[in-house]
Every structure is written in C-alpha cells, then in structure tokens.
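Example 9 (inverse folding). The structure is encoded as follows.
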C-alpha cells in the first residue's frame, strides 16, 4: 500500500495551514511531523534548504514552498477543484495567494506573531512594542482595507471556495492567535468572510490541533497533539535546541 503523504511543519504556521486545508478539503490522507521550523534537525535541513515549513514528502518527491505544494496537490488530486476555472480569476487567485504569502506574512507573521509568540517562546526575546503598535495601527489595517476591496458583497472571493480564500483566511488565523480582532464595523465583508472560513469543517478539524499547540510549550507539543488525536508521523525531525535558518529575522 502507498505511504500517505508526509507534511513537515507546525499547525500554527499559516503556510502549513494552507496546505493542510487543501488536503482536508480534497480528502487526501496524510501524516504530519508538526515541528516549529527552528527546531528542525539536520535531516530537516537537507529536506528544506531554507529551513522553512511546510515540506511535503510524497514517496521520493520532496517539495518546498506552500504555493508549489498547493499547485502540486491540485494537479495530483483535481477534485474538488480549488483553483478557479476561469483563467483570469485563476490568475487573480494566485496573486492573492502571493499577496498573503508575502505581505500578510511579513506583517502578520514577522511583525506580530513573531513579536508576540515566537520571539518570547523560542529566543527568549521581549516583544518590541513600537513594532506591534505600528503593525496594529497602520500596516495591518492597510492590508484589511485592500482585502475588503476584493471581497464581493457575500460569499467567497471568486464564487466557489478557492486557494485565494484559503490563503487569506490562513493568515488571518495567525492575526487572531496574536489577539488581533477584525473590526466588523470597519471591515464588514472581511469579518463575515473570516467567520465563514473558520466555520468550514476543514478549518474546524485543524482548529483542535492548533489550540493544542497554542497552549503547550514547544517541546511538549508532539505529546499534546498525540493526545488530541492528530495524524502524527512515526518519525520526527525535532531537535532540542533552536537554530536560525537562512531566511530568519
Ligand atoms: N515561501 C514559503 C514561506 C514559508 C515560511 O516562511 N514558513 C515559516 C513558518 S510560518 C518558516 O518556516 N520560518 C522559518 C524561517 O524562515 O527561518 C512558503 O510559502 O512555504
């Protein structure tokens, strides 16, 4: 029997979440080694030259980068389709995925989640309050304005649920974990969109494991996830001491 796919990467990474949502929605079996990337061992470094998650291992195929992985999953498991059928909308959806990965990643992950959660938990670093203040008052509102402009009066970005919705929602989830709430009066369409995304069964199945990670110190997360019933891989690439990757700030 074929081995199920392996995903390496923490449930709290938005890039990993994007990939897991695709797998859940397509009903593809997988195993996960849910490591925080800074705690990856030497084998992880060989599988992921940038020391980043997610990594997908499918037999002898190893893929890096969430967008590359999602595209592969779409082609390997076409149903249900998660990229819009219309060519122009498909290109727009890829742009929003890229916008989420780059700008939302910079602001929500590096300036907010990293300051509030990763810095203190991994590097013993105090949050920089000036960075957090600018993020919450300027950078993040500009992103939410932009996204509000893309959303239709109701429903998903391009009619059917697509990679664009999954990407945007995956990053908004980390804003929520950083205790940033979308103001429904200022961004009504986005607030509703996010609520609907969170309500998807696929999102809810992951939420249980995300919560187990969020409330557990990194070294104990694997045990907590085991307890919560996560589909863990047999082997882990976890190492005890954190190390910065080439892209780390
Ligand atoms: N372009 C990559 C970015 C992945 C990424 O930045 N992942 C973060 C986790 S949220 C990471 O591994 N950070 C560790 C590092 O950059 O050293 C993708 O789409 O997969």
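The amino acid assigned to each position is listed next.
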């Amino acid at each position: 029997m074929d081995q199920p796919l392996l995903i390496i990467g923490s449930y709290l990474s938005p890039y990993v979440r994007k990939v897991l949502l695709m797998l859940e929605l397509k009903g593809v079996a997988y195993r996960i080694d849910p490591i925080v990337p800074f705690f990856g061992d030497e084998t992880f470094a060989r599988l992921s030259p940038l020391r980043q998650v997610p990594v997908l291992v499918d037999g002898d195929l190893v893929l890096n980068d969430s967008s590359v992985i999602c595209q592969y999953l779409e082609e390997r498991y076409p149903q249900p389709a998660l990229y819009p059928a219309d060519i122009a909308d498909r290109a727009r959806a890829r742009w929003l995925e890229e916008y989420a990965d780059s700008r939302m990643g910079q602001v929500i992950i590096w300036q907010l989640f990293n300051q509030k959660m990763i810095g203190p938990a991994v590097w013993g670093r105090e949050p920089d309050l000036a960075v957090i203040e600018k993020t919450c008052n300027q950078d993040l509102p500009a992103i939410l304005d932009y996204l509000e402009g893309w959303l239709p009066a109701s429903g998903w970005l391009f009619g059917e649920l697509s990679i664009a919705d999954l990407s945007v929602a995956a990053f908004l989830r980390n804003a929520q974990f950083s205790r940033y709430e979308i103001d429904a009066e200022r961004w009504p369409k986005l607030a509703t969109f996010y609520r609907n995304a969170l309500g998807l069964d696929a999102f809810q199945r992951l939420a249980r494991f995300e919560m187990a990670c969020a409330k557990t110190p990194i070294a104990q997360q694997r045990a907590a996830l085991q307890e919560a019933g996560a589909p863990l891989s047999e082997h882990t690439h976890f190492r005890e001491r954190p190390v910065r990757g080439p892209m780390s700030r």
